[in-house]
Amino acid sequence: GVDLAKQELHLEGQLPLRYDQLLLAPGGTPNQLPKLPGHNLPGVLPLRTQADADALLLATKDAKQVVIIGASFIGMEAASSLIGAGRAVTVIAQEKAPFARVLGPEIGVMFQKLHEAKGVEFEVEAEVTALLGDYGHVTGVQLKTDKIIPADVVVLGVGVRPATDFLKDAFTLEKDGGLPVNAHLQAAPNVYAAGDIARFPLAATGQSARIEHWRLAQQHGAVAARNMLGQQQPYAAAPFFWTQQYGKSLRYAGHAEQWDELIYHGELAKQDFLAFYVQAGRIAAVAGMGRDADIIYITELLSKGQMPAPAELREEMKWAEVKAS
Ligand SMILES: Cc1cc2nc3c(=O)[nH]c(=O)nc-3n(C[C@H](O)[C@H](O)[C@H](O)COP(=O)(O)OP(=O)(O)OC[C@H]3O[C@@H](n4cnc5c(N)ncnc54)[C@H](O)[C@@H]3O)c2cc1C
Predict the structure, then answer these.
(1) pLDDT tens-place string over residues 172-195
(2) Residue 192 domain flag
(3) CB of 108 closer than 6 angstroms to any ligand 1 atom
(4) Contacts of 250 (CB under 8 A, 6+ apart)
């Protein structure tokens, strides 16, 4: 835990550690569906750490049927890695299409087709009601429809929760376990937070967000470090992430949890497109595949609040020439 008044960090089995400045970046703990019968059967595996990845590789080495619960980043990337080598892979999605909530259903369907072409099967709009086992090992996944999908291994890709239990006494945490910080990533006097746990104000809108992505955690870390050294730097960059499946990368800059309109340039089916997420008359985020150079310029424009208005978008736009000042 943390004692804010004494400026001390409490460590298990050790004397408290005094701090002048403290950075909290404990990341997330994978959700494990504790209410689901059979959730703790051997063969039901999360994926967060290197040890998790090693255990998963070992468990799937001779597996014939892998079921992945969750069709977002972890689930879909795990599916793209595990399909093949004699393994059947089924992804179970609560949504109509993978990534629907984050990227929109059209991009989700495109990814689904990409996976299906490689042999991955999908159960969409599906709810898991139990994990079944025999002889002390998982044997299948039961859906609300009573359908049973056989499984030697089940991968849980059902999100993470901020690993902030140890901060409960010191801070008022968000309902989802996030730790609120100000634009300087400060959570309390001399205490900063970065990465998956930090709920911070977005520079573009002032709306608060908690974003679980690699680049953002790095950007947060750098900004928090400067502020811990006495600078007064707000986090002003545009959030950015990527996901890679079958060697194809989607890159995403900005942040839009909801959008009023989605404008596409290029061709989704060919994985050569830009998707513009329009929120309250401005472009809040852009996703792209096969357009890596464009995304670099767009990220810069989003960071500087200089994206063109939606009505100014043109298919033939040369993003390198749309100058951010
Ligand atoms: C399999 C996988 C694939 C991913 N792929 C992508 C991707 O393609 N693109 C992308 O943008 N993002 C990806 N992510 C997400 C990205 O890795 C995270 O958003 C990022 O690592 C968050 O950084 P962080 O510093 O907040 O936390 P973490 O990287 O999780 O680091 C937290 C550290 O704190 C330690 N810790 C936690 N609690 C305590 C405690 N009480 N005491 C001591 N130490 C503690 C943890 O052990 C860990 O070492 C992926 C994540 C996973 C798991």
Answers:
(1) 999 999 999 999 999 999 999 999
(2) no
(3) no
(4) 103, 107, 242, 243, 244, 287, 288, 289
